[in-house]
Amino acid sequence: MTQRRPLIAGNWKMNCLRADGLALASGLAAKASEKGTLGCDILVCPPATLLSDVVGVTKDSAVGVGGQDCHAAVSGAHTGDIAAPMLADIGAGYVLVGHSERRADHGESSTDIRRKAIAAHDADLVAVVCVGETEQERDLGATLSVVNGQVAVSVPDGATAKNTVIAYEPVWAIGTGRTASVAEVAEVHTAIRAELVKRFADGNEFRILYGGSVKPSNAAELLALEDVDGALVGGASLKLEDFWKIIETCA
Ligand code: PGA
């Protein structure tokens, strides 16, 4: 069995003004430092306005920092967007690409997401490529074909287990309190693993996170699954105690 170090990632989305965000990040850094040896890597993805400050308060800790999105281009006339080298420049190490809220709110396609992942790699960032089916797609029995299709197109050929993490997030489980069942998660993660192994020499080493209403009460059973190598946590990552309990599941 391949040993993959889990990654517990917090996606703050469009939440937190400065005081709350910095309190959350510094509280997390303090807990991580106090604990010493951790059973997982920790990542927080704050809104762009807080990235630089969060890098500042976490820099001597085990807490990594990532952006929530990047543009595919390195610079240019793209008002409101952020380029991957800009994230790297302020000390971020990761970036989420293809979150379902970006796919839905901004019409991002898997092709767009592949371009963003390539931009992330070119800037030496780890791309966290998000995939997941809608409720309608699940009801139609199309979950595996949708998710495998998204992985096939969104993950670039240059991906490696070092520069890419996959996050499976069923859209119907995000922010709804409804978590996919252990059997549903296992089925999709196994299918993603098979695709990665088919395509990449180190496909067995990629971390595949589950996301969608992960909380302290369900983290342990999800993280115990063979191909679940961590979690992408939205709502519960905004509460220090809850996020920490999820991290401690990996201890
Ligand atoms: P949630 O969000 O944990 O609030 O469901 C997860 C995500 O969208 O990354």
UniProtKB/TrEMBL annotation:
It catalyses: D-glyceraldehyde 3-phosphate = dihydroxyacetone phosphate; L-erythrulose 1-phosphate = D-erythrulose 4-phosphate. SUPFAM superfamilies: Triosephosphate isomerase (TIM). GO terms for cellular component: cytosol. Its EC number is 5.3.1.1. Keywords: Cytoplasm, Gluconeogenesis, Glycolysis, Isomerase. Substrate binds at residues 11-13, 175, 213, 234-235. It is found in: Cytoplasm. Its main location: cytoplasm. Pathway: Carbohydrate biosynthesis; gluconeogenesis; Carbohydrate degradation; glycolysis; D-glyceraldehyde 3-phosphate from glycerone phosphate: step 1/1; Carbohydrate metabolism; erythritol degradation. The active site is at 99 (electrophile), 169 (proton acceptor). GO terms for molecular function: triose-phosphate isomerase activity. GO terms for biological process: gluconeogenesis; glyceraldehyde-3-phosphate biosynthetic process; glycerol catabolic process; glycolytic process. Homodimer. Belongs to the triosephosphate isomerase family. NCBIfam families: tim. Involved in the gluconeogenesis. Catalyzes stereospecifically the conversion of dihydroxyacetone phosphate (DHAP) to D-glyceraldehyde-3-phosphate (G3P). This is Triosephosphate isomerase.
